[in-house]
Amino acid sequence: MNDENFKAVLASSIAHDLRNPLSVVIAYSHLLSKSLEELSVDSRTIKQIERIRRSAERVDQLIQNLVDLTQIEKGGLQLERTVTDVKKILSDSLEVLSAWSQEKNIVLKVSQADGPIQAVTDELRIRQIFTALVQNAIQYCRDGSRVNVSLAQTEEEVTLEVSDQGCGIANERMASIFDLPQTKPGTLPIKQMSLYIAREAARAHGGDIEATSRGEGKGSTFKVRFRKG
């Protein structure tokens, strides 16, 4: 086994061992939060539980990102394609981020094309793309503002557009927004990793992601497109 294969196998093994207990924390904290809501427990307690869940999800995302980076270095992301319901993938992604958007008092305004939207994709990767783009918008959006999410399709492609009212992107940063930045030892650029991996996942599906902004302080728009088959 060469060094690259060993690194990939090791990363996958470590990720599996770490994610098993994390999945329990995420699942049960979500269940506990919903149960307490039904019992009308005070909102502060529920918010604290949601913070626990989001912290666990953040660690889970970091682990997945590290595994994905290893795959990309080895030659590209691996895809397991099946017929997927794209609208449900988007709904699941928004559900995961709903507590965070509510905490920041951000409205997620969603518009979707009529009828079903199906595509032959890797469901995990498409969810990863959608989550990364909406998460990025919430992160940089001003509290009390709005994020617009629009899902559309043509005969050959699916597109998702996410627009925010946040800090925008300076022209000099636009060309490198999806690149992995050089960082100091011991630091991991989690947000930049997510956008970089999302673009690689889109390209693996025969698509791409582009970002536009009218400048700093004027919000930004991220648009992903990928082939249906």
The total beta strand count reads 7
Query: Mean pLDDT, rounded to whole units?
Result: 84
Assembly category: single chain
Number of helices: 6
Bin the strand percentage. 15-25%
Roughly what percent helix? 40-55%
Largest sheet: 5 strands, mixed
**Structural class by secondary-structure content:** alpha+beta
Distance between the termini: 34 Å
Order of helices and strands: HHEHEEHEEHHEE
The strands making up the biggest β-sheet line up spatially as: 2-4-5-7-6
Computed Rg: 18 Å
Low-confidence stretches: none
Global shape:
globular
Account of the 3D structure:
With 229 residues, the chain is an alpha+beta fold. 54% of the residues lie in helices and 19% in strands. The protein contains 6 helices and 7 strands. It has a 5-stranded mixed β-sheet, covered by helices on one side. It has a two-stranded antiparallel ribbon with strand order 1-3. A hairpin with a 6-residue loop joins β6 and β7. The two termini are 34 Å apart. The mean pLDDT is 84.
Keywords:
229 residues, single chain, globular, 7 strands, two-stranded antiparallel ribbon, 6 helices, alpha+beta, 19% strand, five-stranded mixed β-sheet
Compact summary:
This protein is α+β, with helices and mostly antiparallel strands and 229 residues long. It is 54% helix and 19% strand. The strands form two sheets. Strands 2-4-5-7-6 form a five-stranded mixed β-sheet, covered by helices on one side.
What's the SSE blueprint?
Elements: H1 3-38, H2 43-74, E1 82-85, H3 86-103, E2 107-112, E3 118-121, H4 123-140, E4 146-153, E5 157-164, H5 171-174, H6 190-204, E6 208-213, E7 220-227
Parallel strand pairs: 2-4
Antiparallel strand pairs: 1-3, 4-5, 5-7, 6-7
Helix pairs in contact: 1-2, 2-6, 3-4, 4-6
